[in-house]
Amino acid sequence: MSIVGIGEEGIDGLGELARGLIESAEIVFGGSRHLALAAPLIRGIARAWSSPFDESAAEVLAHRGRPVCVLASGDPFQHGIGSVLARHVAPDETIAVPAVSAFSLAASRLLWPLPQTTLLSLCGRPLDFIRQHLQPGARILALTSGASAPAAIAELLCAAGFGESHITVLEALGGPRERVRSTRASAFNFDLVAALNTVAVEVVANATARIVSRAAGRADELFEHDGQITKREIRAVTLSALAPGRGEHLWDVGAGSGSVAIEWLLADPSLSALAIECRSDRAARIRRNAAAFGVPNLQVLEAHAPQALEGLKPPDAVFIGGGAATPGMIETVQAALRNNGRLVINAVTLETEALLLNAHAQHGGTLLRMEIQRASPIGGEAVRSLSWRPALPITQWTWVKP
Q: How far is residue 25's CA from residue 33's CA, in Å, rounded to a whole number?
């Protein structure tokens, strides 16, 4: 099997090896655009991707061991088909010949060093993924999957307080139809944008911009909530106890506003999370918060725990923010956790604290007591003094499954 990258310049940009792989293939798979670009070289059967795409990937794999060629845009391993096939085939049964990626072409047009640039694929994904990367001074290159995406990104930037950001639309890079246009997000009015485009953003924030901190313990005010939220200081300690590691999966049980699951996802793009919340209004609020923080991939399950936990993807970490005293809750999540998985429970009430003390006595783990005090004004208008006001103390139990 071979995987060949092809650019907008078509076969003129292919080397001898890539040309030979296409010509000798019994079947050539690719998108309609790829097959049209490579048509002069195709001697075998040309087969366009079907929908859903998973069926096409399965068909490619069904021909393992035969001279089959898969065409991809630019570098097949930059958010391309190569990344999908690599999960199923070994390097010694595959020949991959990449072309120049859209990211590299865009960077060369803008003179942007790629190591200092955020690279995103928004192809078939919510544009909200860009939100977590909107930091003043950041440079973002985003692959999109449609002609309307650049205008929608500009609109998103304006709504989030980044309307002065510089936005560049790079269309059909590397081919005869290449076009590069720039403007401010607030002044975006490009018409007839090509469906094949890359969007570059130089982020500029105004005074009201929604900037998501890089550290755990984001401001409570950034979350929409009804009071059911793990407060920022406690949340930072809780994320530390959950200890997210690459590729791990979290259950946030009794998620409330979803703040813990959202901050878990912000720690690394490889992470996944499921927020379990029985109230429909809160479940809807969690989805809105996830989109606003740029992690719309947060899964939300509107159901009662622990009954709803059976049959779910096993977690590497579990946070119980509400409902720890529900009969069978702790035992259910302990059984579901993968080996070396972490369980973290925060208690505010004496009843739940007593439950955690008993769990600690039975299973071990660590107990932590947290008391936060905030300075706030006291007195009337004439006298403005500050005094410490304590928040409710929190008892936290952390247990690691052997």
A: 18
- pLDDT band at residue 53 using 50, 70 and 90 as cut-offs: confident
Look at residue 117 and tell me whether its pLDDT is greater than 70.
yes
**46 Cα distance to chain centroid:** 34
Q: Where are the beta strands (DSSP E) in 172-234?
A: 179-184, 197-202
pLDDT band at 65 (very low <50, low <70, confident <90, very high): confident
C-alpha–C-alpha distance, residues 31 and 71, integer Å: 8
Cis peptide before 377 (omega within 30 of 0): no
Q: Where is 328: in which H helix or E strand? A: none
| 181 DSSP β-pair partners | 169
Q: How many CA atoms lie within 13 A of 165 on its CB side?
A: 31
Indicate the helix (H) or strand (E) that contains 210: none
In the block, which residue shows the tokens 């003043």? Answer: 136
Q: What is the DSSP string of 301-317?
A: EES-TTGGGTTSPPPSE
The candidate with the shortest Cα–Cα distance to 220, out of 252, 253, 259, is 259
161: left (phi over 0), alpha (psi -120 to 50) or beta: left
What amino acid is encoded at 76 in this protein? Answer: P
Residue with tokens 């490619």: 60
Q: Are 242 and 344 in contact (CB under 8 A)?
A: yes
Tell me how far apart the alpha carbons of residues 46 and 39 are, in angstroms, rounded to a whole number.
8
Give just the sign of the alpha carbon dihedral 274, 275, 277, 280: negative
Mean pLDDT, rounded, of the chain? 94
Q: What is the mean pLDDT of residues 312-323?
A: 95
HSE, CB side, 13 Å, CA atoms: give it for residue 57: 14
